[in-house]
From TrEMBL:
It is found in: Membrane. It comes from Arthrobacter hankyongi. The keyword Coiled coil does not apply. The keyword Transmembrane applies. Keywords: Membrane, Transmembrane, Transmembrane helix. This is Energy-coupling factor transporter transmembrane protein EcfT. InterPro entries: ABC/ECF_trnsptr_transmembrane.
Length: 214
């Protein structure tokens, strides 16, 4: 399916400075840029944050096409949001919101594009490990995040393919022709994922409770 990596950028191997930067440094920097884009309301600050993120994107070997691809699934939402903000609060407010949104999206894509997913999951598991005293399971938490990172691109690709198939049949205005196949694909994907986890012993109950009913 196309569009699988639209929302979350796939890892792109490379030898750039951003690729070589340790995760313990890269993660706080990118999270800090995203937080700054949300915390500061000034247009000048948000513009500066976006410029820094774009510099990091190109320093990591990214291209203009990849910037546009990241926005493809959400271009209509962005367009409506900017039009509404321009109408209600003026062009400057729309620009401020656009800068904050783009900075967050591109910062997340930089992290995912320059860091192997397994390394990210290991870091998440390590971050959650101090919470084991409260009953948290770091490995299951990392597994859940990994499944989420796989599922979102799959659903985006499924929606894109179904919508184009409906358009080819002249049914693009029929919600059932789009929503129902996407739901069926999502359920089938969830069942396949559950079966794969169960086959590896990852879905077994270990809390002594009754087994799930079929």
């Amino acid at each position: 399916m196309r569009g699988h990596a639209s929302l979350v950028g796939a890892y792109r191997p490379g030898s750039s400075l951003v690729h070589r930067t340790p995760l313990r440094i890269k993660l706080p920097v990118l999270l800090g840029l995203g937080a700054a884009a949300l915390a500061f309301q000034g247009a000048a600050v948000r513009t500066l944050v976006l410029v820094v993120v774009l510099v990091l994107h190109f320093a990591a070997g990214g291209s203009v096409r990849q910037l546009l691809t990241a926005l493809k699934p959400m271009w209509l939402f962005v367009l409506v949001l900017l039009a509404y903000q321009s109408w209600q609060n003026g062009p400057l407010a729309a620009w401020r919101i656009l800068c904050g949104l783009l900075a967050c999206v591109y910062a997340a894509n930089i992290l995912l594009a320059t860091t192997p997913v397994q390394r990210l999951l290991d870091a998440l598991a390590a971050a959650v490990r101090p919470l084991t005293r409260f009953g948290a399971d770091p490995e299951r938490f990392a597994l859940a995040v990994g499944l989420m990172l796989r599922s979102i691109p799959f659903l985006v690709g499924s929606f894109s393919d179904v919508r184009e198939a409906a358009k080819a049949r002249g049914l693009e205005r029929n919600p059932r022709a789009v929503v129902l196949p996407v739901l069926i694909n999502a359920v089938a994907y969830a069942r396949q994922t559950g079966d794969a986890l169960a086959a590896r012993g990852l879905g077994d109950r270990d809390d002594g409770g009754p087994p799930p009913r079929n």
